[in-house]
Write a structure and sequence with these properties.
With 491 residues, this protein is α/β, with parallel strands linked by helices. It folds into two domains: 214 residues, Rossmann fold (3-Layer(aba) Sandwich); 247 residues, UDP-N-acetylmuramoyl-L-alanine:D-glutamate ligase. The strands form two sheets. A ten-stranded mixed sheet has the order 8-17-16-15-14-13-12-9-10-11, with helices on both faces. Strand 15 and strand 16 form a beta hairpin. The longest helix has 19 residues. The radius of gyration is 26 Å and the shape is elongated. The two termini are 19 Å apart. The model has no long low-confidence stretch (mean pLDDT 95).
Length: 491
């Protein structure tokens, strides 16, 4: 399926290549800058018609050039415009120099900007191409503007953000709106970048579709149903409970059974035909008193588990929620190496000292393991990858997926889902109130429920994360894990 152009993601380097190829094809690069600057001016007038003055902060590159065009367009519209430039604008080159020459407004030094009531700031300082911390004089202006809460419209990306990773490089503007061109960058979706961009508008400035698509990362996109819906089995007329799969969730001891029940109920809500909680004998009574539609089976040790596994209808397992970390978790996990497994929480932590045992067990054949680490768990399982500051969250998730031959859900408000073949999706539909006790147990259950029905590991992981976010939206602020389970809407 061909994605709409605005749904593609380009790194800053790839976007620079797009600009160069467009210019080499005969398209006027200054014409593109003109369209970009005019789009910024139009957005400013549309969304802030009552501004007493528009303050344009122009940097030393093409982002600054867009700012000079926007300043000219705003003045021609009759607005009060003040312009401040970083560095000597006489040293600008190429299209930025031309935009400066065409701008009739006399600017002042960047450090001379003093915010006034009624200002709307247009940030044309660095955009998405920044790769090092902002200079001190820029950081000082950013701090002053952010502290006052001055409305900021960012061109391409709020200055101070890394367009590849969404990280803050020293300091960054907090924009109420961001205007970007042709496609989004990863930094528009990854945190904290997503929060600092405000409302994002993507404007077509006339670069041909074929050029943009040629440089887009075809394995990277926002996590949306179009990416995985075709791979999720749909219930047909002849469907029965075993065709919809049998999901097994392992329970902890008598004082730690709730997490497994949350996962089990979520798996049932996600569409699994049968769900069983595998419980230690000592916890059977607790679980039995609280279960109705979920079945119960006693499994005390590895030998009992292996005997039970002779039933091949047991297709998919969830291990980790409330289970406890240690040798028993490792034994159970390795016994399941030929089945589909969602390894979560304590299951992940159990392999912190010998992760290669886990990776080797699932290294061959189709991907059948899903790992769901949050930041701390990721660092415990992949300490070298986690410590590499040159890698974005996307890079880290991809590296982990390749190493483990697993689908990785690198959890957070900007969860990244990655496959061993390099596919990666950034999730953006999760509301902040999903950060509550038991939320991760519910996510594991949804993913397990989809895998039990036959969804491939990566697609089940991506769909599970998206459905989890959607359930959070439906449940609303103040949700509990119980509310979240009820709000799950199967595909």
């Amino acid at each position: 399926m061909m994605l709409p152009l605005a749904d593609l993601l380009l790194t800053p380097d790839a976007m620079s290549c797009v600009d160069r190829v467009a210019a080499a094809s005969g398209i006027s690069s200054y014409g593109l800058m003109e369209k970009a600057g005019q789009a910024v001016a139009a957005a400013a007038l549309r969304h802030f018609p009552g501004a007493l003055r528009y303050v344009i902060l122009c940097g030393p590159g093409n982002n600054g050039g867009d700012g000079y065009v926007a300043a000219r367009a705003l003045q021609q519209a009759g607005a009060d415009v003040q312009l401040f430039h970083l560095g000597d604008p006489q040293r600008l080159k190429g299209d930025a120099a031309r935009a400066f020459a065409d701008c009739p407004i006399n600017g002042a030094a960047f450090s001379g900007y003093a915010p006034m009531t009624g200002d709307v700031v247009i940030d044309a300082v660095f955009g998405a191409g920044l790769s090092r911390p902002v200079p001190d004089d820029v950081a000082a202006i950013i701090a002053r503007v952010n502290e006052i809460g001055m409305p900021v419209i960012a061109i391409d990306l709020p200055s101070g953000l890394d367009g590849r990773s969404g990280r803050i490089l020293g300091a960054a503007f907090r924009a109420v709106r961001t205007v970007t061109f042709m496609t989004r960058k990863p930094g528009h979706l990854l945190l904290p970048g997503r929060d600092l961009c405000g409302e994002l508008g993507v404007f077509d400035i006339g670069i041909p579709d074929r050029i943009v698509r040629a440089h887009a990362d075809r394995l990277l996109a926002e996590n949306k149903p179009a990416q995985w819906q075709a791979a999720i089995p749909s219930a047909g007329v002849e469907t029965h409970k075993y065709k919809r799969g049998h999901l097994v969730v392992f329970s902890g001891g008598p004082n730690a059974t709730g997490a497994a029940r949350m996962s089990a109920m979520a798996g049932l809500r996600a569409g699994a035909g049968l769900v069983t909680i595998a419980s230690p004998s000592e916890a059977l009574g607790v679980n039995a008193s609280l279960l109705t539609s979920i079945m119960l089976h006693a499994v005390d040790d590895e030998a009992a588990l292996r005997t039970w596994l002779t039933d091949r209808r047991l297709s998919t397992f969830i291990l980790g929620p409330g289970f406890g970390a240690g040798e028993k978790a490792r034994q159970f996990c390795l016994a399941l190496a030929d089945r589909h497994l969602v390894l979560d929480a304590d299951g992940i932590t159990s392999f912190r000292d010998e992760p290669q045992r886990l990776f080797d067990a699932f290294a061959e054949g189709p991907t059948r393991l899903v790992l769901t680490p949050h930041e701390g768990e990721f660092g415990r399982l992949f300490p070298d990858i986690a410590a590499d500051e040159t890698l974005s969250k996307i890079d880290k998730a991809r590296a982990a997926a390749k190493r483990t031959h697993a689908a990785i859900i690198y959890k957070g408000a900007d969860s990244v889902i990655a496959a061993p073949d390099g596919r990666a999706l950034i999730n953006a539909n999760a509301p902040p109130w999903l950060a509550t006790a038991g939320s991760g147990d519910v996510l594991a259950g949804i993913v397990g429920g989809l895998m039990a029905q036959g969804a491939p590991a990566f697609e089940a992981a991506a769909a599970g994360v998206w459905l989890h976010g959607l359930a959070g939206q439906h449940a609303g602020k103040g949700l509990t894990a119980e509310d979240l389970v009820v709000a799950i809407k199967p595909l």
